[in-house]
Amino acid sequence: MKFILGEKLKMSQIFDESGDVIPVTIVKAGPCFVTQLKKEEKDGYSALQLGYQEKKENKIKKTEKGKGFKYLQEIRIDPKEIKDNSKNIGDKVDVSIFKEGEKVQVSGVSKAKGFQGVVKRWGFSGAPKSHGTKHTLRKPGSIGMTGPQRVLKGKKMAGRMGGKRVTIKNLKIYKVDTENNLLYIKGAIPGRKGTLLEIKAI
User: Fold this and answer.
1) Model confidence over 34-90: pLDDT tens digits?
2) Residues 117-164: tens digit of each pLDDT
3) Residues 46 and 82 sit within 8 Å (Cβ to Cβ)
4) What 3-state DSSP class applies to 146?
5) I need a surface site. Which of 4, 39, 121, 178 has the fewest CB within 10 A?
């Protein structure tokens, strides 16, 4: 299983051989280190734990369980990979595990936009813009009915927008920069600058 943690930097664009513009998101991925191995015999499942962004030694003592890293993330893997000793604690994982043209899925927390009304949050059209409409242009309108006398669950209303975990699949790796630990992924990726991302090969 190819899996790495990264940090969203920015969006940019690249021109291909035919002169077409390719929108890409630049991600600083790794290097990550294996901090823990979960086994079915002991933990009930097989997983690999990676640590990303080491903390300074004067702030925290490093341990085998990865307490010297800012981010820790688990990924479920095939039990055979652990039994074959393909991964050991302390192993380094970097962008070299990926190839150009490979398809990946990226998970991250989307931009938090605070409390928003129904027009921005759900795309409501709002009230008519003329014929006596006043102060109700962006209101949701009626939210109930004659019976039952309550608001049904799942009703689209105003509330907090964004700030949720989002996964986008079938994204293509356009370029791999091993010297600077950068991945150029075609298309948009959830989150703001600095958002922690989980990149997994499909």
Assistant:
1) 888 888 888 888 888 888 887 765 454 454 454 578 888 888 877 766 655 567 788
2) 999 999 999 888 888 888 888 999 888 888 888 899 999 999 999 999
3) yes
4) coil
5) 178
How many Å apart are CA 24 and CA 100, to the nearest integer? 13
Across the chain, the runs of DSSP E, i.e. the strands, are 3-15, 21-29, 32-38, 47-54, 69-76, 92-93, 103-109, 112-116, 159-162, 165-177, 182-186, 196-201
Peptide bond into 31 cis (omega under 30): yes
CATH of the structural domain 3-133+154-201, one choice from 3.40.50.620, 1.10.760.10, 3.90.230.10, 2.40.30.10: 2.40.30.10
